[in-house]
Design brief:
Blueprint: E1 5-9, H1 16-28, E2 42-48, H2 56-69, H3 73-78, E3 81-87, H4 94-97, H5 99-119, H6 125-141, H7 149-152, H8 161-173, H9 178-193, H10 199-202, H11 218-237, H12 244-265, H13 269-279, E4 303-304, E5 310-311, H14 313-319, E6 321-322, E7 329-332, E8 343-346, E9 356-359, H15 367-380, E10 392-395, H16 398-406, H17 411-416
Parallel strand pairs: 1-2, 2-3, 9-10
Antiparallel strand pairs: 4-5, 6-7, 7-8
């Protein structure tokens, strides 16, 4: 899964037989991931000549015997190829002796890379680093269960049945057609499956001339990550029209069609989803939820637009425009659902902690925190309100009154009031 070519030097073992036994021991452990069964590493067994063999005939017979042993069925299921390479004696230079090995490794790596491109498994370093850590943790816990590679990089979608169920209940309540609902779910899954910056788009420019897809295979991705949540939501709805499994397959068909459309149009998944929100004709003016982000159907909403629709921070980062000269301030000029609302907001920086302003009560003593806030405002300058420096403000008694006034006025005005 993480290695394309395994190079084994037979001289590090007592003999070829011990190398074969080591390969057998690896096969007993089972395949590392059911999702990667078509990506098998290539094995190169290197035998360096030492002059200790009785004759060239003996060496040839030993090589043929080993190659025959390596044709066993268990090896074919776990390795794409097993090649035995004999290097020349040490009488020539090291560079010359290892040139054949260098060229062979290069050919095997190129072949494995092309296979990963074809199968949609050519991952970037970010995916590999994260998945390697997850694989180590999984192996430390158990070697009996297969490691799910795709699920390891999409853990946040495991518990999304509630979001999909809520969306389907809203659609059923407002007489939305099943086809429009299924297409929109597939479109939302596409948005979650292929976000900006993932490995597919990373290789898009380099592989444009090869006409090869580098993204996760859409069918495999749906089966591994999204199917369980979709089937669970469909069972909760209990439409009775068709079985939940059959309806899930319909969503899969729409999902693969939208994936093909994304490639044919050479656009981002967010653009495809934005078009679907506009053209499907869902009654967005009547669909509202404070428990599900209706833009992605994958997370809870965290911000509310002026039209009443709510949206999660991930969707704000995806669809809103970043305000100039500001790192985390965004502006969504119109609601993607109804085109009537807008939103200006600041997202919480991923490396920042949560900033809480707590103001105690005490009647007339409330002037003390007010004076402190006034000095803080003077220190940071007029370009930034002091209350914008906090994510949460709370207070008791007079402190609660101060907190409420701070949400509406400047600290200086609050002190004068």
């Amino acid at each position: 899964m993480f290695a394309d070519v395994l190079c084994i030097f037979a001289n590090d073992f007592k003999g070829f037989e011990e190398v074969v036994e080591r390969l057998k021991a690896w096969t007993i452990l089972g395949k590392p991931s059911a999702q990667m069964e078509y990506i098998k590493p290539s094995v190169i067994i290197v035998k360096q000549g030492t002059g200790s063999c009785p004759s060239a005939t003996y060496d040839l017979l030993e090589r043929l015997d080993v190659e025959l042993s390596l044709l066993q069925r268990e090896f074919i299921e776990f390795f794409s190829s097993i090649i035995v390479l004999h290097l020349a004696d040490e009488q020539i230079s090291s560079f010359s002796r290892h040139r054949r090995l260098k060229e062979l490794i290069r050919r095997q790596i190129t072949g494995q890379r092309q296979l990963r491109q074809t199968r949609g498994c050519l991952y970037n370093a970010l995916h590999l680093s994260h998945s390697f850590s997850e694989a180590v943790a999984h192996t430390a816990c158990t070697i009996e269960q297969d490691f799910n590679f795709l699920l390891s990089v999409r853990k946040e979608f495991v518990n999304s049945t509630a979001f999909l169920t809520n969306f389907q209940l809203l659609c059923a309540r407002h007489c939305t057609t099943f086809e429009a609902m299924e297409i929109y779910i597939a479109s939302a899954l596409l948005l979650d499956a292929y976000p900006p910056g993932m490995h597919g788009k990373f290789f898009a420019v380099r592989l444009a001339t090869l006409k090869v897809s580098a993204e996760f295979d859409p069918s495999l991705l749906y089966q591994s990550v999204y199917k369980q949540s979709c089937v669970g939501a469909l069972q909760n709805l209990g439409s009775g029209r068709i079985s939940s499994e059959a309806q899930s397959e319909t969503i899969l068909d729409h999902f693969t069609d939208l994936f093909a459309e994304m490639h044919n149009r050479n656009e981002k998944a967010s653009e495809i989803h934005r078009d679907n929100m506009a053209r499907l004709g869902l009654p967005w003016s009547r669909l509202y939820s404070n428990t599900t982000c209706l833009h992605c159907l994958c997370r809870k909403p965290e911000k509310v637009l002026t039209c009443g629709h709510s949206i999660c921070d991930r969707c704000i980062d995806t669809f809103a425009d970043l305000v100039e000269f500001s790192e985390y301030q965004y502006c969504l000029h119109e609601c993607l659902l109804c085109s009537r609302g807008n939103l200006d907001t600041v997202l919480h920086p991923p490396t920042a902690g949560y900033r809480v302003l707590s103001i105690d009560g005490g009647g007339i003593r409330g002037v003390v925190p007010l004076e402190f806030l006034r000095h803080l405002q003077q220190y940071i300058g007029p370009s930034c309100r002091v209350q914008d420096l906090f994510d949460l403000a709370i207070g008791t008694s007079s402190g609660q009154i101060i907190r409420h006034k701070l949400s509406e006025e400047e600290s200086n005005e609050c002190q004068e009031g």
